[in-house]
Specification:
138 residues, alpha/beta, 4-stranded mixed sheet, 36% strand, globular
Length: 138
């Protein structure tokens, strides 16, 4: 048995690559209520990183949007990727709002398979799947 103390871990961020940074920022900030926390251009690398979230980076998990300036075609999502998940008070109300804003609905609000928790799925401007779910009741 090791006497080395296990470090404390906290999920810092998830990164996705986006083709149209402005559309993605509009989706995540205006529609989902996230805030831009940090926006950095890297001219020598020809990319921009924007960190967005619901609170300070050192306290909450954030989302990193990476925009490669020369990317002209949508990214392959792969079969291992699942989705990003966001809590909302009412999935039905959130889905109604997002649909009215032209967001693609992947699966309408309904009780999850084999459970009672309300879920719904939409797509962001790059086709990434976004799960909306209601908080777990303790």
């Amino acid at each position: 048995m090791s006497d080395t103390k296990t470090p404390q871990f906290r999920l810092d961020h998830t990164m996705i690559r986006v083709c149209n940074l402005e559309k993605s920022l509009d989706f995540y900030t205006r529609l989902l209520g996230m805030k831009v926390l940090r926006n950095t251009d890297y001219p020598n690398g020809r990319f921009t990183n924007v960190f967005i979230g619901y609170g300070p980076e050192n306290v909450t998990t954030t989302l990193e949007l990476t925009h490669n300036w020369d990317q002209e075609v949508p990214y392959e999502k792969g079969k291992a990727y699942g989705h990003l998940a966001f809590n909302v008070e009412s999935v039905v109300d959130a889905m109604t709002f997002l649909e009215s804003e032209g967001v693609t609905i992947r699966s309408p609000a309904k009780a999850m398979n084999h459970g009672t928790r309300m879920l719904g799925f939409v797509e962001d401007p790059d086709g990434y799947v976004i799960e909306l779910n209601e908080p777990v009741n303790p």
